[in-house]
Amino acid sequence: MLDWVAGVGRSTLNIFTVLGRSGLTMYQALVAVPDWRVQFPLLVRQLYFVGVLSVIIIVVSALFIGMVLGLQGYTILVDYGSEQAVGQMVALTLTRELAPVVAALLFAGRAGSALTAEIGLMKATEQLASMEMIGVDPLRRIIAPRFWAGFISLPVLVAIFNVVGIWGGSLVSVDWLGVDSGSFWANMQNSVDFADDVINGMIKAVVFGAVVTWIAVFQGYDLVPTSEGISKATTRTVVYSSLAVLGLDFVLTALMFGDF
Amino acid sequence: MVSDNVIVRVRDMSFYRGERAIYDEVNIDIPQGKITAIMGPSGTGKTTLLRLIGGQLRPDAGVIEVAGKNIARMSRKELFAVRSRMGMLFQSGALFSDLSVFENVAFPLRVHTQLPEDMISDLVLLKLQAVGLRGAAELMPAELSGGMARRVALARAIALDPDIVMYDEPFAGQDPIAMGVVVQLISKLNKALGHTAIIVSHDIQETFSIADYVYVVADGQVLARGTPEELQATDQMQVKQFIQGLPDGPVPFHYPAMSVAEQFS
Q: Do residues A202 and A163 lie in contact, with contact meaning Cβ atoms separated by under 8 Å?
């Protein structure tokens, strides 16, 4: 019994130590006056690797998810003769929930794991240590641009997800299944509120972007520099970010749309 | 003996990894403008010593002073300023894998100076010429052999003409020609520019040929110190065994284990 209590205490302490360390790491990386001459080209490069290279997977997934939503929505709504409402259903589902959550999960798998592995390998091959010895802080040079790139990229990817998803929904329901195009778009316009739905979805995207990238860069920076350490940290990035995204989604949804 | 002009002073320094003492109250003086070698069997924490001097690790007790200042007490900013006057050659080379050879060597120059591009280019090519790799300037680190990568890293370590250069196993993995060049290069840099050199190595011949002063470390202690001649004349058994490379002696070759008879019975 005592062992069990001690074990719980030890793991709780560990969790808080890691949280504290990751908080301090990010503080040292991000809180400083940026030298734009140096930081801007680094940021652009990372925006390409983290953001632009994720566009394909986001577009393809959004298209299929939009098409599935259109199809499922139609088959349910047509029984009640209200298949015109499929436009509003697709748009609300995407903007409020599916676009930020699915994009964040895909982003964690595509970009987050890559960030962890890249930083981890830099650590294992002493690149971070040699950068320190040259007198350049790797937190500012390696971690900061990668974090900001993720933070900026995810909301943009979510916006793309929304647009492509809705287009996918219209492809299936309007062009294939013959829902009236006027009602499809008019219903969507009437029911989707820019502030309540689109902006709230984007707020989720901003939060997820920060959390996923934070987890990814910290796991890379803090890992044990061996091949086993890198593989474990990469797995942890995907698992922790996915859980964090799903958990935070519930909390944010409750705050934004909960009626209490 | 050690001159009065000591640039790195290690006093009663202890460093632990877990329970194990890597260093136990050691005292080391690195004289300015000289070549000092730190030698010892593998796994005795020679690289750790370089990291302690560079401020990447902090000692658990004692003091490490670089140019009169306690390195463990420095703020992050001060530390990075001191490091810009130090060069370090890492054992693996540690080249930045996303930059070309040229950009790797140019990196410290771009970070710490405001020199115009053509001057940076000249300096980089000069440093690469010194290590015989001017022709490899446009290659990426992945295209280099281990020995070549180490020589590029050496060019990068000396790009800023630092006051102190720390070499971690500079001779390992070099072919005989490159090894000769590296030995000469370290010696020349020291003689011509007055760099203080700290060499960590177990290549006895090469190290003894250029070192002014040698420390032999093992088991967390400084076993012996002196000029190469003094050490070669020593009758301390442990040091003798190490220098002459004898398998039998007070330093066990085998990792602690049960006896052979027990193992195979």
A: no
